[in-house]
Amino acid sequence: MITQMDEPFEEAPLVLESCHSTWLFDAERMRFRRVLKGLDLDTRAASTAWRPYFGLELDPISESFVVMLNPEGTRLLRSWRHVDHCSQCGGEATAELSVEELRKVTST
User: Computed over its alpha carbons, how large is the radius of gyration of the chain?
Assistant: First the structure.
């Protein structure tokens, strides 16, 4: 059965966890932002503004990802997904953000 929804459906952002940040990618609007981890700050204060991006490459073998900041692919951000037994930070786990904290950040 199909029902009418009060609010239009919005695609959930792609969420990538790196050692020091939670990265949110809004593929529909081609924008991303980062929320810093481990800070004793308000989630909004520890978040960057939405920024445009022109491509995202994920490497499942090395867990690295590259964000293309311009159409030519000459301005890049590279990071690595945080995983168990992380070779990048040597840590076992990092702080997690709740769904409610992520909603606060994505609503702006």
Answer: 15
